[in-house]
Amino acid sequence: MNQTQTRPPLVRRAGEPDADELARMLSGLTDLSRYFRFQTAIGTPPRQALLLRMLCPTGTAFVATRDETIVGHAMWAWAPGESTAELAAVIAEDDQRHGLGVRMLSIAAADAIAAGATHFLFVVSAANERSIRMVRRRWPDATVERDGALLTFVAPARLPNHPKERPAVVDEQIGCDEASAPHERRPIDNAVPAI
């Protein structure tokens, strides 16, 4: 673990004030990481319209920060189908493979369930072996269909099976329409049981 990873990330609700910092994080990703998350080129820096869709979706968005630097993003948004929520996450290169993505997806999943989601949708590149393993391991009852280079998983809405390890993450929230300073943000209720 490098020096920048010594402080645990803080997971909180995202909002429009996070646009510049989210653009910085996305611009620092490898082309492969960006492709796996978006299945298309997003530009460097990403367009403002994309950032706003990520920060204020039809569901809820979350960011993970360390020293006010965004190191992860997760969201859920209503998808076609009765009470179906699409889940997605992207984690900064240095913070990948430490459990943060699963933690953030767990928070997004809990929020989507609270909003009435009965199914989850994951759209994953067939070449993204890590994400495919993660979905199959944590939502083993998911069905999958292939459409060219994409796999579409649909699973009953429930919290994922949790890994044994857990990153040290502190949770707090800020709404999309709130523009409070970081020190004014409120603690989030423990949306996901400790793992």
UniProtKB/TrEMBL annotation:
Membrane-crossing residue ranges in chain numbering: none
Keywords: Transferase
CDD domains: NAT_SF
Domain called N-acetyltransferase: residue spans: 9-165
GO MF annotation, one: acyltransferase activity, transferring groups other than amino-acyl groups
Keyword Plastid included in the entry's annotation: no
Classification via Gene3D superfamilies: 3.40.630.30
Name of protein: N-acetyltransferase
Taxonomic placement: Bacteria, Bacillati, Actinomycetota, Actinomycetes, Propionibacteriales
